[in-house]
């Protein structure tokens, strides 16, 4: 039976960034905030690519066939669709982790167990120990949400092979994979698990390219798995035509847009890393503008409450199963993020 239980994090975060004077909670690279018109400002003066479908563009990005791609209304829609189609029996989800990835599998009737990612590192051996023959699906993020740790292609391959040995599906949510100071091999300049055995990857235009208002996501995987997704997709809303058209424009200009995003990652990572070294406990992975950090004198809720007194929004770590910490994300202009970090430091010191 389908059970849509409360997703505490989504209910908590809803509306808060728009009300915050200093937003250190939003993890998408969208410094100018939500779009005020139909066309996002950074797409307004860019050209389109004629006579190509969005699926064909994404297939080119991932070096796959068009039939390996299914477009969704954002990554949350993609993850829900994957759960609806494949979550059965036992599903393994990383810990600490993003609450909706646990909730989706449970909502569609699966029993959810966990495998650990100490300090956010993806360890294939740890996953192998957690796998059993009744495991239907393994779900993880890359970069890891909430720590920002990045797993390389070979680590992802080892995880896929362990899952395949138990006839289990590996699902990798890659919405943060492109975050970094330099481009690497893979979609938008980040490592991808696309093309690995028995693997589905989830992506979107929301995080790295900062185009969340379009609500465009996708799933990439083997033909037979994508066909099953397409069958299940008829039970969900379809993607709006205007969003598809603007997504095509974004992908036609992806290199230009990605360059701006990498600059934000570089500058904001450096700001966050300096702040953590001076005041907090934790590690800011290379190139990541977000991290899970703590303070020796406060729990995550206490630190978030002190921050709120100074009109700073950060995410309590209890939403990621780390009540001792908070997730701090720098997605805005570096000048604004520097001011926000100073306000957070003042709140902690008072």
UniProtKB/TrEMBL annotation:
- Please provide the record's keywords in A-Z order: Aminotransferase, Transferase
Looking at the record's lineage, which domain of life comes first?
Archaea
Identify the species of origin: Halomarina oriensis
CDD domains found in the cross-reference section: AAT_like (cd00609)
Q: Does the keyword Transferase apply?
A: yes
Question: This protein is called what?
Answer: Aminotransferase class I/II-fold pyridoxal phosphate-dependent enzyme
Sorted alphabetically, which InterPro entries does this protein's record hold? Aminotransferase_I/II_large, PyrdxlP-dep_Trfase, PyrdxlP-dep_Trfase_major, PyrdxlP-dep_Trfase_small
Q: Can you name one GO molecular function term for this protein?
A: transaminase activity
Question: What taxonomic ancestry is recorded?
Answer: Archaea, Methanobacteriati, Methanobacteriota, Stenosarchaea group, Halobacteria
Instruction: Please indicate if the UniProt record lists Phosphoprotein as a keyword.
Output: no
Sorted alphabetically, which PANTHER family does this protein's record hold?
AMINOTRANSFERASE FUNCTION, HYPOTHETICAL (EUROFUNG) (PTHR43510)
Xref: Pfam families = Aminotran_1_2 (PF00155)
- Where in the numbering of this chain does the Aminotransferase class I/classII large domain appear? 53-344
């Amino acid at each position: 039976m389908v059970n849509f239980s409360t997703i505490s994090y989504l209910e908590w975060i809803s509306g808060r960034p728009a009300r915050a004077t200093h937003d250190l909670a939003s993890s998408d690279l969208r410094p100018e905030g939500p779009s005020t018109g139909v066309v996002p400002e950074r797409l307004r003066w860019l050209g389109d690519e004629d006579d190509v479908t969005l699926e064909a563009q994404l297939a080119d990005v991932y070096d796959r066939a068009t039939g390996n791609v299914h477009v969704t209304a954002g990554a949350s829609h993609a993850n829900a669709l994957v759960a609806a189609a494949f979550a059965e029996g036992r599903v393994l989800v990383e810990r600490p982790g993003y609450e909706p990835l646990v909730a989706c599998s449970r909502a569609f009737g699966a029993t959810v167990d966990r495998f650990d990612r100490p300090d956010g590192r993806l360890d294939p051996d740890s996953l192998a120990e957690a796998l059993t023959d009744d495991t239907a699906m393994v779900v993880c993020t890359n970069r890891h949400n909430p720590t920002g740790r990045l797993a390389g292609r070979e680590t992802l391959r080892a995880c896929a092979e362990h899952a395949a040995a138990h006839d289990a599906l590996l699902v990798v949510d890659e919405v943060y994979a492109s975050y970094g100071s330099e481009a690497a091999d893979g979609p938008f300049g980040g490592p991808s698990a696309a093309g690995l055995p028995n693997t589905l990857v989830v992506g979107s235009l929301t995080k790295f390219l900062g185009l969340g208002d379009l609500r465009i996501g996708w799933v990439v995987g083997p033909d037979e798995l994508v066909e099953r997704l397409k069958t299940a997709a008829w039970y969900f809303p379809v993607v709006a035509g205007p969003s598809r058209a603007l997504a095509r424009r974004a992908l036609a200009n992806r290199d230009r847009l990605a360059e701006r995003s990498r600059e934000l990652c570089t500058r904001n990572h450096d700001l966050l890393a300096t702040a953590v070294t001076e005041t907090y406990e934790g590690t800011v992975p290379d190139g990541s503008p977000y991290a899970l950090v703590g303070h020796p004198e406060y729990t995550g809720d206490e630190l978030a409450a002190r921050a709120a007194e100074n009109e700073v929004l950060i995410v309590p770590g209890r939403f990621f199963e780390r009540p001792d910490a908070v997730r701090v994300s720098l997605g805005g202009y570096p000048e604004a993020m520097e001011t926000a970090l100073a306000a957070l430091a003042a709140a902690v010191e008072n």
